[in-house]
């Protein structure tokens, strides 16, 4: 493989740190050409010392260091333009990752996409830009990476279901009556994955799986009725496909994000991982149906996937606001779904094609959600 120049967005986060590990382990395959963090300046400067050729962007506050030459959200877009990267890993959290995804594709750069919100908000636009600029769109989200590899070289007509597995989060076995007393720390304690705070809360409410249903619908162009969610507490099976003959095919590996990141970075090649890999001997794999009463965020996401138009944008915007409010202890855990449900009661039938229109609906959903949060937290 020719050496690839890699730009990491969200380098101070969980996806970013895992991506750096892959770069460090493969110095003959990858050159790090740029890094972006939002607020964590010290980690950005430390990485900058380790990788002196990488351009540095701190997007969330002013830096006093002359090593950091890009700043603000416009700085991220300029960094992408100047980076001369072959592949961008987008590990930014939330809707703020959308414009960088668009910019990377407009610059003709392959996109390794962890930022699921890009597909949830603007799936059609992202696919259009990837095809227009002849760029690879490589899913990094573990389930979608699994599905991408399972579906590769298979005719779409032979696939009857995409089955996304879900750990069920920390409250899989908790009684619904006890949900009111859930604390932030309990919700952050994911049973199988080590991830950032926002996605960890989303896993606890199963909004993460909800976003992933929409992400899968957008990435793979399957009708929502063909997309299923299956609880699998061990997180070894990352997803399955069912073919028309009703057989199942699964991708199975340790719950370790370095694998999907490595697969995206090396794509279309595939390399053996240098760490301990999964041995199934002695392992128990369990599966069960999700409980939609306990996890209304999953039910709402299926409804949004069915409705389409701007409702996935509203689902995401309201959930982002509600999760932040929960993390700041402004609302209880159970209000996350209430905020989202309330926001979705508004009209989201607008059809959007452009990023600006998408971001206007995103903003509207946040305003509606914030108003409701204020009333709830009085
Ligand atoms: N973590 C995981 O294993 C997985 C994550 N994902 C997805 O990947 C994305 C990143 O998740 P994760 O790494 O866990 O999140 P983290 O919270 O760990 O990291 C988020 C990164 O985004 C940066 N950031 C935060 N706000 C902004 C902003 N407004 N503009 C630009 N950058 C910003 C942070 O910078 P700083 O810290 O410097 O403020 C940090 O580098 C999410 O979309 C998530 O759903 C998908 C599958 C698995
Ligand atoms: C690692 C990854 O891809 C996460 O999105 C993971 O799926 C979260 O776990 P849940 O299945 O609990 O949402
Ligand atoms: Mn996932």
UniProtKB/TrEMBL annotation:
<feature type="binding site">
    <location>
        <position position="167"/>
    </location>
    <ligand>
        <name>1-deoxy-D-xylulose 5-phosphate</name>
    </ligand>
</feature>
<feature type="binding site">
    <location>
        <position position="116"/>
    </location>
    <ligand>
        <name>1-deoxy-D-xylulose 5-phosphate</name>
    </ligand>
</feature>
<feature type="binding site">
    <location>
        <position position="190"/>
    </location>
    <ligand>
        <name>1-deoxy-D-xylulose 5-phosphate</name>
    </ligand>
</feature>
<protein>
    <recommendedName>
        <fullName>1-deoxy-D-xylulose 5-phosphate reductoisomerase</fullName>
        <ecNumber>1.1.1.267</ecNumber>
    </recommendedName>
</protein>
<keyword id="KW-0521">NADP</keyword>
<feature type="binding site">
    <location>
        <position position="212"/>
    </location>
    <ligand>
        <name>Mn(2+)</name>
    </ligand>
</feature>
<dbReference type="Pfam" id="PF08436">
    <property type="entry name" value="DXP_redisom_C"/>
</dbReference>
<keyword id="KW-0464">Manganese</keyword>
<dbReference type="InterPro" id="IPR036291">
    <property type="entry name" value="NAD(P)-bd_dom_sf"/>
</dbReference>
<dbReference type="Pfam" id="PF02670">
    <property type="entry name" value="DXP_reductoisom"/>
</dbReference>
<dbReference type="GO" id="GO:0070402">
    <property type="term" value="F:NADPH binding"/>
</dbReference>
<feature type="binding site">
    <location>
        <position position="143"/>
    </location>
    <ligand>
        <name>1-deoxy-D-xylulose 5-phosphate</name>
    </ligand>
</feature>
<dbReference type="GO" id="GO:0030145">
    <property type="term" value="F:manganese ion binding"/>
</dbReference>
<feature type="domain" description="1-deoxy-D-xylulose 5-phosphate reductoisomerase N-terminal">
    <location>
        <begin position="6"/>
        <end position="123"/>
    </location>
</feature>
<feature type="binding site">
    <location>
        <position position="14"/>
    </location>
    <ligand>
        <name>NADPH</name>
    </ligand>
</feature>
<feature type="binding site">
    <location>
        <position position="209"/>
    </location>
    <ligand>
        <name>1-deoxy-D-xylulose 5-phosphate</name>
    </ligand>
</feature>
<dbReference type="GO" id="GO:0016853">
    <property type="term" value="F:isomerase activity"/>
</dbReference>
<feature type="binding site">
    <location>
        <position position="196"/>
    </location>
    <ligand>
        <name>NADPH</name>
    </ligand>
</feature>
<feature type="binding site">
    <location>
        <position position="13"/>
    </location>
    <ligand>
        <name>NADPH</name>
    </ligand>
</feature>
<dbReference type="InterPro" id="IPR003821">
    <property type="entry name" value="DXP_reductoisomerase"/>
</dbReference>
<feature type="binding site">
    <location>
        <position position="208"/>
    </location>
    <ligand>
        <name>1-deoxy-D-xylulose 5-phosphate</name>
    </ligand>
</feature>
<keyword id="KW-0479">Metal-binding</keyword>
<feature type="binding site">
    <location>
        <position position="212"/>
    </location>
    <ligand>
        <name>1-deoxy-D-xylulose 5-phosphate</name>
    </ligand>
</feature>
<dbReference type="InterPro" id="IPR013644">
    <property type="entry name" value="DXP_reductoisomerase_C"/>
</dbReference>
<dbReference type="GO" id="GO:0030604">
    <property type="term" value="F:1-deoxy-D-xylulose-5-phosphate reductoisomerase activity"/>
</dbReference>
<dbReference type="InterPro" id="IPR036169">
    <property type="entry name" value="DXPR_C_sf"/>
</dbReference>
<feature type="binding site">
    <location>
        <position position="141"/>
    </location>
    <ligand>
        <name>Mn(2+)</name>
    </ligand>
</feature>
<keyword id="KW-0414">Isoprene biosynthesis</keyword>
<keyword id="KW-0560">Oxidoreductase</keyword>
<comment type="function">
    <text>Catalyzes the NADPH-dependent rearrangement and reduction of 1-deoxy-D-xylulose-5-phosphate (DXP) to 2-C-methyl-D-erythritol 4-phosphate (MEP).</text>
</comment>
<feature type="binding site">
    <location>
        <position position="15"/>
    </location>
    <ligand>
        <name>NADPH</name>
    </ligand>
</feature>
<keyword id="KW-0460">Magnesium</keyword>
<dbReference type="InterPro" id="IPR013512">
    <property type="entry name" value="DXP_reductoisomerase_N"/>
</dbReference>
<feature type="binding site">
    <location>
        <position position="143"/>
    </location>
    <ligand>
        <name>Mn(2+)</name>
    </ligand>
</feature>
<feature type="binding site">
    <location>
        <position position="142"/>
    </location>
    <ligand>
        <name>1-deoxy-D-xylulose 5-phosphate</name>
    </ligand>
</feature>
<dbReference type="Pfam" id="PF13288">
    <property type="entry name" value="DXPR_C"/>
</dbReference>
<feature type="binding site">
    <location>
        <position position="40"/>
    </location>
    <ligand>
        <name>NADPH</name>
    </ligand>
</feature>
<feature type="binding site">
    <location>
        <position position="115"/>
    </location>
    <ligand>
        <name>NADPH</name>
    </ligand>
</feature>
<feature type="domain" description="1-deoxy-D-xylulose 5-phosphate reductoisomerase C-terminal">
    <location>
        <begin position="137"/>
        <end position="220"/>
    </location>
</feature>
<comment type="pathway">
    <text>Isoprenoid biosynthesis; isopentenyl diphosphate biosynthesis via DXP pathway; isopentenyl diphosphate from 1-deoxy-D-xylulose 5-phosphate: step 1/6.</text>
</comment>
<dbReference type="InterPro" id="IPR026877">
    <property type="entry name" value="DXPR_C"/>
</dbReference>
<comment type="similarity">
    <text>Belongs to the DXR family.</text>
</comment>
């Amino acid at each position: 493989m020719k050496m690839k120049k890699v730009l990491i967005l969200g380098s101070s986060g969980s996806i970013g740190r895992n991506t750096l590990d892959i770069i460090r382990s493969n110095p003959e395959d990858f050159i790090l050409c740029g890094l972006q963090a939002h607020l964590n300046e010290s980690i950005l400067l430390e990485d900058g010392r380790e990788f002196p050729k990488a351009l540095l962007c701190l997007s969330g506050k002013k830096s006093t260091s002359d090593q950091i030459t890009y700043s603000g959200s416009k700085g991220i877009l300029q960094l992408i333009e100047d980076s001369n990267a072959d592949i961008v890993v987008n590990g930014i959290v939330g809707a703020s990752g959308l414009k960088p995804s668009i910019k990377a594709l407009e610059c003709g750069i392959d996109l390794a996409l962890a930022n699921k919100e890009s597909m949830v908000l603007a799936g059609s636009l992202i696919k259009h830009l990837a095809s227009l600029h002849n760029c690879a769109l490589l899913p990094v989200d573990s389930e979608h990476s699994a599905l991408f590899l399972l579906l590769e070289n298979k005719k779409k007509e032979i696939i009857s279901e995409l089955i996304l597995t879900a750990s069920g989060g920390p409250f899989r076995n908790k009684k619904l009556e006890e949900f009111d007393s859930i604390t932030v720390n309990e919700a952050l304690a994911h049973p199988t994955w080590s991830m950032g705070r926002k996605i960890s809360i989303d896993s606890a409410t199963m909004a993460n799986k909800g976003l992933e249903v929409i992400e899968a619908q957008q990435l793979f162009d399957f009708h929502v009725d063909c997309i299923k969610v299956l609880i699998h507490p061990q997180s070894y099976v990352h997803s399955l496909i069912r073919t028309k003959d009703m057989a199942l095919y699964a991708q199975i590996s340790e719950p370790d994000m370095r694998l999907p990141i490595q697969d995206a970075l090396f794509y279309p090649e595939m390399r053996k991982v240098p760490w301990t890999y999964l041995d199934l001997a002695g392992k128990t794999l369990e599966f069960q149906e999700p409980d939609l009463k306990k996890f209304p965020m999953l039910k709402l996401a299926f409804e949004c996937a069915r409705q389409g138009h701007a409702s996935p944008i509203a689902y995401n915007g309201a959930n982002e606001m509600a999760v932040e409010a929960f993390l700041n202890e402004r609302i209880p855990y159970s209000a996350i779904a209430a905020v989202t449900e309330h926001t979705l009661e508004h009209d989201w039938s607008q059809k959007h094609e452009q990023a600006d229109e998408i971001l206007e609906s995103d903003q509207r959903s946040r305003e509606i959600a914030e108003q409701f949060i204020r009333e709830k937290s009085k």
